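2024-03-11 09:14:02 DEBUG pipeline.ingest accepted 1 chain
2024-03-11 09:14:02 DEBUG pipeline.ingest length=406
2024-03-11 09:14:03 DEBUG pipeline.predict start
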Amino acid sequence: MIFKKHHKVKFLILGAGPSGLSLAHALLSLGHNTSDIVLLEKEMVPGGLCRSEIIDNAPLDIGGGHFLEANNKKALNFLFKFMPEDEWQLFDRISKIQIHGMEIDHPLEANLWQLPRHLQIGYLESIAQAGCVVNKPHPHSFSEWVIWKFGVDIANQYLLPYNRKIFSMDLSQLGTYWLHKLPNVSFKDTLLSCLESRPTGQLSAHGRFFYPKKYGYGEVWRRMGGQLGDMLHLNCPIKTIDPVKRVVNNKWSASYIINTIPWTLWTSYCNMPLEIQKLIYQLKNVSINVDYVPQTLQNKSHWIYNPDESIAHHRLLLRSNFTNSGRGYWTETNSNRSHPTTGQRFTNEFAYPVNTLDKPKAIRGILEWASNHQIIGLGRWGKWEHMNSDVAVSEALDLASKLSGL
């Protein structure tokens, strides 16, 4: 019998999206050798969900709308090393919600004053009766929580139908543990907003954001990948994983495997205990289609949310308003809701991890099993969390420091 000699590395990173690329560069900056690190990426271009392509003579982000949060200084300082700040443009976000035949600034609860007075009164009355305002117990399912937090009107007119469009599933299957991302809302703030005709309260992420002046968002990740040289193996899909020996594709042997790809793919790569397979089968994800429309809308928004369930897409990204050379826009639609198209479409099977009620227990068990084999989950898919790219970068930097101390 002939035994194949494996290439031994210290860190074998699966996936060259923002998490994997950032981890590799962070490890290098902490003094690790290029021979210590290998990244495997199935696509021909690095960047994962943040990749861009030139469509109709301008960049289009094929994984949907991704922007660089302006308030995360840790991530900014790191990424500006690869794509200097003067190559980015800073925007004050303009995002709208199409509702009641109008376009209202996002978030809705901070901008009810833009609606006709009779609609404002209805929303205010429902907020005053919301469970969090009248001190009702905190519910544990998403649907009940939205009503408890925002009142019946905002829930039924906007948040529930919008989320039904994104997830295309029974929302009672979702938990509430991830809702810290939603801004706080109070009856006092909302009433003051309506009385003074101005937004109040806490704004959500991307209130200000950076976007490349000449390129799509994928450019920074492409540059990061290019600087890794032979450490990055593109067009290299995972075929087999031995989690005990930490051997991948029967070629690379690692001291640590860092996983940034979906755990649901692992069941076809390796043998694992039945109880871990059962936990993996509990994980759910959403597939999103990104469709390009060449028509340029006479609208100053960067993106627009639409909760109308008679319309397939849930969001429009008006690239003509954040790319200097772009025209038209693209839509994001749950793949189960998409209609056939003859236009340009990009399908992202793994777009959003779904925060089901049983996900925390499932991912906790998976990560514990992995950790026992010196396999570490990182990023959106390694942790099965819907995190923005700046958060993925920050967590990769933290993990690099931890790994360097081992």
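2024-03-11 09:14:41 DEBUG pipeline.report Residues 291 and 345 are 4 Å apart (CA to CA).
2024-03-11 09:14:41 DEBUG pipeline.predict end
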